[in-house]
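We give the chain.
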Amino acid sequence: MSRRYPVPTPLMLGLVLAFGPCLARADDTALTPVTVSASALTLGSAQMSTPVSVLAGDELVRRRTATLGETLAGEPGMAASHFGAGASRPIIRGMDGPRVKLLSDGSEIMDASTISPDHAVALEPMLSRQIEVLRGPSALAYGGGALGGVVNVLDYRIPTAPPAHGVEGSVELTADHAARGAAGAFELTAGSGNFAVHAEGLARDARDYRVGSGWAAGSRVAGSYNQTESGSFGMSWVGERGYLGLAFTRQQNEYGLPGGGHEYEACHLHGGHLHCGEDGDEHGGEHDHDAALAGTPYVDLDSERWDLRGELLEPFAGFSHARLRASHTDYGHDEIEHEDGIASVGTRFRSKAGDARLELEHVPLGGWRGVIGLQTGRRDFRTDGDEVYVPPTITAKHAAFLIEEYTFADWRFEAGLRQEWQRIDVDGPEHDRSHRGSSVSVGAVWDFAPQHSLSTTLSRTRRLPSAEELYADGPHTATLTWERGNPDLKAETAHNIDLTLQRRAGPTTFSISVFHNRIDDYIHARTLDADEDFRLIEYAQRDARFSGVEGALRRQLDAIFGLTLFGDYVRARFDAGAGDRDLPRIPAHRVGLRLDAKWNAWEAEAELLRVGRQDEVAEFETSTPGYNMLNLDLSYRGRHHGIPWQIYLKGSNLTDELAYAHSSFIKRAAPLAGRNLSVGIRVSF
């Protein structure tokens, strides 16, 4: 079957024409690329008023997995939603979904992963060059609704300068034991003068993964396989004052949905209660779980995305820097089900979405340096098939924001302001909805001693309800839920305070943060009824509070060895009132000890992690036992005829412990992976 590829939107073409004449003529020397970062002011992590996690270089190679959520799950304050091996979003300080904004080099990732945890993020960590996690005033540049934080994934798709020697790139191959999987990736950049091109690609084939010992359901999670193909081609025009580039990326995934859910297909509603009996069975009767496992459903995903990126120094009087980001995504996935041994499409999800943002950094005024920006986006989302639990909707969002900083002596002050407008048009009997919200944040960093800082942030942010929270109505068996929206939802209002103490250099370094977040009218999926694992949920609002601590302390023991103590804890509760107090799927506390060593071309790391029992649970939710994890990493760097190469060996859960992720919707159907050994080789040129 032939596939139709989208063309750049008129908005993209107009922006190309607008930026193109501003670029300088060809020149032998290109401008050093402007640093691209999640911070609107391109600050270093030491300058931020709130903690920033950055994965890059060898550390990123060690942490990378097949999904973004699992890649970041080891960072303090972060966890993963974990839906088998194919879908996993980051959870930051107990918040997930639309409260965690995912970006591709500053432009929003327009997939369906915010709608449900069984939907994969349309992004490949193995093709990334740096991953940043940001909270605080600068996060307002990307959305007031990012109460948890912003994850910005930097890549190579659009070159910002031609390679110094004409061609550069890398090739990487990996294989692992637990899923009997293999993956390979390459990236190549070439160019000269003012023109550069880039190509990259990836293929992954992982089978059902093996769990820890002692699981009653067997040794492997049925339907936990993951097959991925991704490719991208981009080009840039680079001048003395900036660059402008365009890239096309296509990603195809096929991954299983562990846990099935077919045994609940006969469920229906009687008022506010579930009835899942069939042929006269009583409510709460036994289900045929073996039959469900015989035909595990899976997702067939296809995402096609265009990216436009440009930066320009001194675009016009009064401004020192302009940055442009725009994207258009044609996304779709089919949820394939099995019946009588025949696979058929149960539900189709389709989304055509685009966004654009323009940032202008003004010259210092009275000591203040800042960025003013505009952002707009539109998403046309619809579903067809057996589980049309969300009607067709068109969501339009517009925003204006301002980020400013001021430095005085040992102090740096930062402030952010954002105004958002949203309109959701729905195809159905429900009424269209419009919302608006203002968010503001202020922060300060005090360098009270050399390499020591104390920072704090105060913020008041507004998150606007999503189309799914407003209009959902129907079963979603992948998450074992029947969802009911609430068209009367209003915007959330969050008041947050964050305090961070850091030491950045010396034999002992540390970063410790405490936070408290009070959210008025917190939108949540309230469970009304349950039949075994299947739940009836309705989106409702109630005041909630999130409090916690996270941090890491490292001591360099000698010239070779270093020791790090790290951990996190978050407590999330509703305010006093009727009903349950604890929020569902809040990650348990963690504490870990990591020993690292560097000797000549060798690097090694041993980590012991303790995840506590989570028994502070919501109604209809079960507690999750704690577990220990032992992980080891070993790598060696070398050169062959001047070409650098690296070989690495990773071992995770070496004690083969049976472990469950409390944050997962399907924790009992899909435990975490058991003992796993993986090996990889990376060659750069």
Summary: DSSP finds five helices and 33 strands in the chain. Residues 49 and 455 are 5 Å apart (CA to CA). Residues 1-36, 279-293 have pLDDT under 50 and may be disordered.
